[in-house]
Amino acid sequence: xxxxxxxxxxxxxxxxxxxxxxxxxxxxxxxxxxxxxxxxxxxxxxxxxxxxxxxxxxxxxxxxxxxxxxxxxxxxxxxxxxxxxxxxxxxxxxxxxxxxxxxxxxxx
Amino acid sequence: xxxxxxxxxxxxxxxxxxxxxxxxxxxxxxxxxxxxxxxxxxxxxxxxxxxxxxxxxxxxxxxxxxxxxxxxxxxxxxxxxxxxxxxxxxxxxxxxxxxxxxxxxxxxxxxxxxxxxxxxxxxxxxxxxxxxxxxxxxxxxxxxxxxxxxxxxxxxxxxxxxxxxxxxxxxxxxxxxxxxxxxxxxxxxxxxxxxxxxxxxxxxxxxxxxxxxxxxxxxxxxxxxxxxxxxxxxxxxxxxxxxxxxxxxxxxxxxxxxxxxxxxxxxxxxxxxxxxxxxxxxxxxxxxxxxxxxxxxxxxxxxxxxxxxxxxxxxxxxxxxxxxxxxxxxxxxxxxxxxxxxxxxxxxxxxxxxxxx
Lengths: 108, 357
Prior knowledge:
heterodimer, A: alpha+beta, three-stranded antiparallel β-sheet, 2 helices, about 20% helix, B: two-stranded antiparallel ribbon, 2 strands
């Protein structure tokens, strides 16, 4: 057991010349949430943001950017995927299709 | 709440997971509490099932060491090709014949840098370090595509590279969008979207020359004559000589064989050349009615091997320029890091000061 498994999102935790790794999230247009686009190295948050603009939005792919230090992301473990997410599997009553509705009943 | 993962020592620092650790390079010996064989027995079936079901393998999943090493080698070589590939075309930026062409070429060369960065990031998800990859490029321990060891002698070469070299790259890369390794496949989706502009601008450039003066037409033809064969070599050695092909196909890193992709490329190019009003420099090129494809002449694999080994026209020049750029940029990287560190220290001091009050 080694406590929480904090990892660099996808990009791991390698450093380039002392530049940490950042994960980049792009909101492609208003009304949508930010989505993970990739990662990059930068000395600080400000430069990470500028680099993210040049790297991930050269063709107007975004209207808003987030950069997050990869080391700040805590991820679930792929190995524990089954026990970790299992509690949801045996609760089909959380889905509307679980329930029987008499024929002819509408707007339900 | 987290059990120790295969390939992860129990004292893993925060920030390092399997395949994402700072020093878990592809060559690093397995430092697992569980030995490699036991891990393969425990996790191998899940990996095989995921590959068989066309699911994607993600960075922190268990994967065979050889799968990881193959991907690192391939992605690194791909990333190196993107950034070395900036050089032959960048030579023409200052000599582009119009502002329109100059803007296009700058955008294209910038895209190549971007593609390199997407790919280096993908390699890093496998535990490779960026510095280590660059080091291996600079010391010749990892390769880049041999196509970039040919010179760009005329403006028409910019067109031929866009049409043929980027065209061959697209033919290679489209199937990689379905590669079994998630981060590589996602990088390729971005790359392929952007490459199609590269190919079209090259084609348009050649078309303009081909329809221009006699001298311009001859320049376009000369460029196509020089770039055709090296472009066919981009697909790699013939299937029966390709060292890694079979295993890569089994792992679904590769989806089609070298020869299959090369044939596909030839079939695409023949009618495109005709529309350009240019010919392809192969007297043996003829339509095979029975097979429904174009037969083409023998490729000079000795030339391919020589260029790969370092005897191409520009090998030395490309690597030297790459090393020089890296060394001359060192002070910028260091200054930016120093500035960031100082700023962070200042922020910390201010915060302490505020708390003291």
